[in-house]
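Hi W.,

Here's what went into the run:
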Amino acid sequence: MSTAPLDQPWRVCADVRFRPFPPEWVVLKQSRGEVLVVNEVAGRILELLAAQPRTGAQLVLALAEEFEAPLPVLERDVAGFLGRLASDVVVEAA
Amino acid sequence: MAFGAFFLVDPAAAPVEVAGQAWGPHALTLRLPAGPYELRGLSGIQRQALAARWAHFLAPSGAHPVATVQVLRMPREAFRPVDTRGWDYAIDLETTPERVRLAGLGIVAVWTRARPLHVGAWVTADDELHFPGQLENVLRVVVAQSVLARGGVMLHAATVEAGGQAHVFAGTSGTGKSTLAGFCQEAGLPVLGDDLAALLPGVDGWSVVPVPFAGDLPVTTLTEPRPLGSLNRLVQAPVNRVAEESPARLVATLLKVSPWVNRDALHTQALLDVCSSLAARGVPLRRFEFTLDGPAVASMVRGER
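Here's what came out:
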């Protein structure tokens, strides 16, 4: 799985809708009719990016306040999630 | 590819508003989910063909229809020849904020978003063999949109009655909806459909309303709504097993198998709302893994295993 650079700003693509179904989230890529199920951290990333574009590093700091995880773990997870979401055209470079 | 380019000789000439020559003076009203639906401009043969195909779904005229379909003439020469051998039939659907256009084998249709819907359906056939299928392509989409507008959803699913409730088995093409429905029918369970099911909310909860849009099995003769008993994600597997499904995975399946409206930007939010409501209403959400052991599968649907 590809990872995304943490200094790159990202935003949610305009045709993407998502909603929490705890403990997971459902993501709909409307233009392709594709549906993803992602975990709560990836869902929270989408929620943060929908509020405003952010870099991976900014996402790590925001998530560190909400999830009890060491920063290196969060950095690895955020880079991985952004890489997957970008390859699925759910997020794009801002 | 431009709208209609696969089916039409001149896609740029595809109609954008309802105008043209009717096939005849006859009309028919159908009792379908979120309906009724009125068909106008039919020839005598066309009316007879529809009345025979959907005999159990005829309604008296005079009720206020949610959609009126005006059937209009189009010459066969307007359509390109299509080699249908080995082809998985799919219509061409164009959705904009203002209107919907549809093209298929021998059919073009257009309607605006204003309700009640006023649909123009241009067809080439005036016979019992081809015409009902041409018109059904339009009705499937119109009914799906009308069901969503009523707060429900139409799903690609097999639906079987057991224990006085309707159990919905949702799946994409090839997951075995008709196979499962056939197993249940052989075991004596009433089958409400093997291809599409309409789910509608009511004061007493969700119900499943039969639709006469079939897959491999004959059109159902059951017309009365049944209370929704369970929602199942259909999975072919080496062993028979029913397991609880996570709401997210079930909703993801529902979004994938809610045809036509799930590709329409204007309907995405409403569709998510409906799926959320379904997942939150306490209806059992299950993953239904099944084999080709028909009697065992039917027993599992009955809840005996």
